[in-house]
## 1
Amino acid sequence: MAELDAGSAHRDRPLSPHLQIYRPMLTMMMSIVHRITGAALYFGMLLIAWWLIAAASGPNAYANVEWFMGTLIGKLVLFGYTWALLHHMLGGIRHLIWDTIHGLGPADRELLTLATLIGSISLTVIIWVVGYLAVGGPR
Amino acid sequence: MTAPSHMRTPMRRVRGLGAAHSGTGHFWHQRVTSVAGIPLTIALLIVVVALVGRSHATVGQTLGSPLVAIVMLLFIINTAYHMWIGMQEIILDYVHDDKWKLLSLMANTFYVVIVAFASCFAILKMSFGV
């Protein structure tokens, strides 16, 4: 084995390029979005817990949840939660496909990534249209 | 005869299960809970959309009915474990100070256990009607 000379270990070496060097690409943007949506859903779980606890507590507690979800901020939070949930789910499916060593080619990976973005936005709109107009909404 | 130190291979580290001493267990569990999470998340969305705007009595009755309650309990437990691993991964990536790392890892566990327990308790209360 070649011996390292004592000095070379501490010599200034070129560092590998980091985030600010790279041109933003869809796959890397969606990678960080996957983590951000995951972290958002982590705290969004409080909404589900609040909803369930209020429903179990009684009509007054449940009325508070309904009131908040009816406000503009409540609707925005809920809309964002829906999108984050769907985006994280579709992004997760994409990662599961990648785990099988499929879809990693230059064209495939871009296509898969674009599909998760378009898919999550479309599905969110569809669910809200169905939920608000057809099934749910005030009644 | 013992092998000279430079002949040690990465296998030695693998057998020692790495710095976390637990190998790839969490990686695999995150995959399992993500697969389980797909149908459970779809089920959650259906339940929520179906209950939007309904009266408190209807919501309580539906969430307490066995099929919905079982699916919701599975969603909560599966998601709780998935997000516990996920947040731990985020903490280990970004928090380098030992004190803050330990505190945030603990806070992660407390938060997940409390949220999951409270949600499950609410579902069970509606199911058993007490």
Note: Helices of chain B lie at 10-15, 25-51, 56-64, 66-94, 98-128.
## 2
Amino acid sequence: MLILGIETATDQVSCAIGGHEGVLALFEVLRGRRHAETLAPAIEMICRQADVTLDEIGAIAVDVGPGLFTGMRVGIATAKAMAQALRVPVIPIASLDLLAFPLRHADRLIATVVDARRDEVYFAFYRQVPGGLQRVTGPAVGSVDDLVGELLARGEESLCVGDGALRHRELIATGARRVEFAEQWLAHPSAAPLVQLAHAKALREEWVPGSAVVPLYLRRPDAEINWATREVAR
Amino acid sequence: MITLLSSSPTDTKAVAAAVAGVVRPGDLILLVGEMGSGKTAFAQGFAAALGVIDPVTSPTFTLVHTYEGRYRVHHADVYRLERMAEVADLAIAELADDKDAVVLVEWGDVVAAGLGHDLLTVRLQPTEVERPEQRVITVSGAGDRWADRWPRVQAALAAWVG
């Protein structure tokens, strides 16, 4: 089965086609135009270059964050629309898991950190286990200090990856000490690990209908706004 | 906190222009006050002072309007929203992260929790029934971004302080 992967949860826009042979085509651009203008032409291009027609796509994988809402609304809307039109299921995967996946052979704590803007970060910690990675903390949203506190509490050597880790590199390095940073080119989730992880899930039919896909909100999304002021006005 | 008196919508626009004189890209300003208290008038005066030529209208039904001036001005309104997930979808924090932009959020006080520490809050309140155009405006800053600039904010608004 071929899987189309759509990745827009950070500044990088990426899409890929993959299956049991691995990744057949991959597009990544970090400093492009806006997500909406880049994504659809990129999907069209990788399909053409890999000689894949859309009716061969058996599932759509999409990064559901946490990440940029300006980006995710483009990627998730595209995934939902294509899934509905092609009558295929969607495999949602978290951005923090995608960042950890390429580092799964590291024998130390892996901290994935996505920039949440306004001096906050989304983060999760992972540890190597036989056969893959296990998430041991998070996903959480908090200040850089919160992240440093969690790293200090763990008290072990760690490897930080993600655009949030790079943006706040100095603060993290000074606060948490025994920490190293992964390469810059691993700092944004890519559609390559997305289709690879999704393929394993597709074999187990771990998918959902497009209508069920929502971004991963970490700030109490169901909380109602306390509209005391507005009710007075009404 | 600075408390000042505006005599009319035109005066409120002048106050907004004075605030616009001290803003920096990345600033996030919450506009608070009931319907008709002058939030949009403030936004109009603010945008005009930053060189926006397009007419500034209430974004209540379209949620976010973006104008180009000396800085980009994102003008959002959360009045129609019911849940925090909808606020997240507007990506206000990301708009404020734009290096060339400032963000105004009408009714923003109720959703401040997700917007970080550095905020300027402008509250507009009607005064007496006999003076329907008069408003008490309070301006308060939170976070280092505003603490550093507070004397300049006070100087800019001194003309309206009682």
Note: The interface with chain A takes residues 28, 32, 34-35, 78-79, 81-85, 87-91, 93-97, 107, 109-111, 113-118 of chain B (CB under 8 Å).
